[in-house]
Model the fold of this input.
Amino acid sequence: MSTKIFGDVLQKFADKSPATVMVHGLLEYLLNEDRLNEWSEKNSGVQYTGNLLFSSVVAVMMEVVCQIKRNINSACRRAEHINVSLTSLYNKINGTESSTSAAPVRHIAAESSDLIKKMKSENPAWLPGCQTKLPDGNCIAAVEHRIKPLRNIKSAALPGKSLVVFDPQTELAADVFPCEDGHAQERLLLDNILKTVIKNDCWVADRNFCTQNFLFGINKKEAVFIIRRHQLLPVEDISEKKFAGENGSGKIYEQIISLKSSNDEIYTARLIVVSLNRKTRNNDNEIHLLTNIPEETADALTVAEIYKKRWGIETAFQRLEAHFNSEISSLGYPKAALLGFCIALVAFNIYAVIMASLRSAHPDTNIKDEVSEYYIAQDISAVYEGMIIAVDYKEWGIFRNISCAEMIILLMLLGSVDIYLSHISAPAK
Done:
């Protein structure tokens, strides 16, 4: 780093492992102890504990999620801020309300989005004038029979599931809706998502989200949707199907149809049919898309292309699984498993800010192709613990209580270090 802005010890880490410094700097900036403990009290309705603060629990789990420590046990034993037994720590983790777990994700996403946009590092809008949102479900894998109620049954339990809303422009997990019933249908959580819909949203989703009330609710809020039609959703034809063009996936047709809510409120929409050149993995020959976007805003080919981009959400979940310990195997209780998953989303968003800072600092470089997130994650995992030991707590004060503009300056300075371009580049394809 050409400009010395930190103390001698922290400066060495900034020069050799800037992403590691950014991770902890962002934690200091976005997740200070007072704010975390305030969320805990507000969302749980009670004081978390006089001896164990929510911020301490988050700090321990963040180390496990980022693969700095192998498990909660090892993270707890080395943590100076944990002054209770391991059993007490697990009891607190197991009792954390899902609303408390989700709160940091939403906050981090909002603050991170502001940083990314002000760095002018967001991706182009999928639909001009609209904020695209990609909801999808994540079911935490079945666990072993560690918890007492499961020891006498043959099947493993699903500790929980979540609906995650991704923002492709900032590459953030913008929101999460956790559910402690791992076997529940995603549709049961749609009312919660619908409360967050605002004007000019563009919701792009698969057929699990295709319900009468969800579609109508989006339309009523002056937002738009591109959602794959579920075969059980009734539609009424208004016009004949007409050929609209052809793309790499196949021939595309469209027609005007009418939809109605469960209260029989009727509105018009478009049905886009993609006749595929190659069957899907579910052996489908066609994909039927429902949208309320006016034709003058997006023709049928554009609508089909936007939905095709949606498949990238699977890549986001794959990145989450590849870089983070998002499903901590020792957490079998639903509340605990969901807390672990939400902390992984927090880490995912912090990484998104790091990648955005690299894009902003190196505008002429294709960061997605030139820099490997995997190697950055490995670098952070290897360096983080030593950095925390070596750097005095007071030195991190530079990241606390600063303005957004000042934080962007620090991120840009750290992002300008070319170590990840010269030494940790993506493998050749």
